[in-house]
Amino acid sequence: MILFDGKTYPSSEQDRLIGELAPRLTAARETPPDPEPLIRALDTLAGRIAAGEYDALIDALDLPDRDRMVREAVWMLQEEQLRRKMAVELPPLPETPGLAKRRLPLGVLFHIAAGNLDVLPAYSVIEGLLAGNINILKLPGGDNGLTVRVLEELIALCPQIRDYLYVFDTSSRDLEAMKALAALAGGIVVWGGEEAVRAVRALAPANARIIEWGHKLSFAYLTPSYTDADLTALAVHIRETRQTLCSSAQVIYLDTADMAEVLRFCERFLPVLDGIYGENDLSHNGKMTLQSYTARLREAAGQSDGSRLFRGRNVLLTASPDSRLEVSDMFGSIRVKPLPREQIVPVLAPHKSRLQTAGLAVREEDLVRRLALAGVTRITSLASMSRPLPGENHDGTYALAAYTRIVDVEE
User: Fold this and answer.
1) Which of 40, 261, 313, 384 suits a disulfide with 380, CB 3.0-4.6 Å?
2) pLDDT digits (tens, 9 = 90+) for 380-393
3) Would you say the CATH fold of 217-381 matches that of 2-215+395-410?
4) Torsion over CA of 84, 90, 94 and 98, rounded to 10 degrees?
5) Where are the domains of the chain?
6) Could you read off the pLDDT of 110-156 as tens digits, one per residue?
7) Is residue 50 helix, strand or coil?
């Protein structure tokens, strides 16, 4: 489905509509969108979501942890939060003698969205609008229709944005269409891993700014003073996110070099996680069973790497002697590893371009300093690892600032 000029069109109209884009964009660039009516419209949309007006649509999408996602969407779209975001990410420019400084949008943003979070494509466009840009969105494969529906509602509440918003369900394999859309953009916003970024660089024009929001790795870090409440908070986080987000814990690190401590932690955490996680998909449980069986075979053959598996009904903890940061198997399967704080920087710094969130049981300034030096960009409580925080950065920078440019005018 395509959203163009505030109306929906079938995918078969793609080539014709792309051909009509250039003159529309040229006209729209003359007057960037005003964020004020947009902010009010988003606040109204948040109120309607909170009042349950879209419950039937939301329920039909079968979202994981629906209530949490709805609460967070309402919070992010409220006027208070949007104004705070604008103030933090687009502050007044410093006065410089002899220069008049102006902040302007990049002009046209081409958003290439990922599909690991249902609200992400729509929110990416909203950020582009707040920064004053015209926005072209390529929907991720398998989009469930939520993005177009949300943006249609937003256009109904704020008709002014109609000329600044275009959505296409173009396939990533349709290189001619992708190149045509990229050629219209002053900035290309790409959500995805290294392969997605490489593909975008290959089709992007030389003069386009590429803004990468790549896949990131996050982890939990616990000191020996962790409590039962900390274990519960971590288990709830794993259940809520299913470890599918960039901010989800992929590894649980313990501030120790003693493998015996790692094993004791697994024995203590397993019943907590298993009790909170709930039922799992049969395919994921089957994968865990295969992992357990393979590990026993390797141990019997003398090929074990020293790891120990702790299997619950629906979850799997792997106690590993190494400190390597890696992606978990997700969906209730997570690795537990030793990482004494003195080794945080040498172990994690080589991954600094991929690091995002560290969830701490106890906030200690020494830990915060080491994690920040290693390259972590978000340091939170265990409960807040995947929850939006007021004024937070996005992978070490601010999205609205990345979607604008500074112009100096000699006085």
Assistant:
1) 384
2) 999 999 988 888 99
3) no
4) -150
5) 2-215+395-410, 217-381
6) 999 876 566 788 999 999 999 999 999 999 877 777 889 889 999 99
7) helix
Say what the pTM is: 0.85
- The answer to whether 177 touches 128, Cβ cutoff 8 Å, is no
DSSP 7: E
Question: What distance in Å separates the CA atoms of residue 31 and residue 90, rounded to the nearest whole number?
Answer: 19
Angle at CA 121, nearest 5°, toward 283 and 82?
A: 125
What are the CB-based long-range contacts (under 8 Å, 24+) for 391-400?
391/84, 391/85, 391/88, 394/213, 395/213, 395/214, 395/216, 395/356, 398/88, 398/89, 399/89, 399/127, 399/131, 399/211, 400/85, 400/86, 400/89, 400/90, 400/127, 400/130, 400/131
CATH architecture group of domain 217-381: 3-Layer(aba) Sandwich (3.40)
Token pair 């992992």 in the structure block, residue = 291
User: Residue 366: helix, strand or coil by DSSP?
Assistant: helix
**Taking a C-beta distance cutoff of 8 angstroms, is the pair 222, 252 a contact?**
yes
d(CA 357, CA 101): 34
Name residues whose C-beta falls within 8 Å of residue 35's C-beta, 6 or more positions apart in sequence: 86, 129, 130, 132
